[in-house]
Amino acid sequence: MVPAFGVALALHAFLALYSSQQVHAALINITVDDTDVQFWSYAGPWNSITPSTPCFGCKAHPDPEQAYNKTWHDASLASGSFTFQGSAVYIYGIDFPDPGNLTFGMNNPSITTFHYYGGTAYVYNSLFFSATGLDPTVEHTVTWLFEQSSNSSSGQAGLMDYALVTVDQQKPKTKTKAVVGAVVGVLGGLTLLGAAFMFWRHRRTNARTPMLIDSDGPDAYPALPMSTGAMGYTIEPHQTHESVPLAARDIPPSGSQLSGEASPAMRSMPVSTGVTSSTSPNSKAPSVPLVMLWDPNHSDERSAREQEMEARVRNLEELVASPPPTYS
Questions:
Q1: Where is this region: Disordered (predicted)?
Q2: Spatial distance between the Cα atoms of 94 and 140, rounded to a whole number of angstroms
Q3: pTM of the model as a whole
Q4: For a surface tag, which of 22, 125, 127, 128 has the fewest beta carbons within 10 Å of its beta carbon?
Q5: Quick check: 296 pLDDT over 80?
């Protein structure tokens, strides 16, 4: 269950990254205020007009409530630039009576335009410059210059308000989705690693647990604890539903003697139970055919168990070879 969840999480991360690259372009206009120095640059005698920093000595005094964000830049015989990346640009200002001549220039592609206002009232949101069909993958720069008006000796100033830039709205979203997808992918990978580690640890723990199985049957039983009795090594009974039948089904009736020929199953690994008959002191309980299992990948553990088993077998052989005790 856990590995399946990890796989699903990793797949979700992959789909998030893949789908973020398959979205269709959707163009939107973003507004850039004249106070944003990341896009705007000013040179010469410029005044930045805000509600907290009015310009009482400026020639033009527009209504702040009608200007974008209640701010604008007032210039007289000054220059500046606007740098952006998008498919279109629109630069707006405020027209007022007797302004200066405004010249615009642009690279990529090369464009030169002029703006002049000859009216007698203030005009807000006046389009000074525009360019469309631009390459959105490169950076563009629009420059301008306020010069002396050819119609008036006092016309030298101009007011810059804001700009609109057309961009693909999926570009910022794609970056965000890529970051989120990467984080989810890392979490999914960590989940898979954790699940794999737990699965390996569970298999390793089960492989290292020794088991006893009946050599003439497929049933497996947990290892029985060994202890040393008066007659050698004995097996303490294990409280399982198969522990008693395992030992009892091969023990002959009380008082019987073992035959000289052991069964093939008993010859495979004779381990004495150390239990004697209650009616005949000379009789011994038959060997229980048992096989010890352990992890074959741990050679040190296997070697130690083999040596222990060989020592037990030698001890049992000595006990069998020795004559039975006499009773008076």
A1: 251-328
A2: 23
A3: 0.49
A4: 22
A5: no
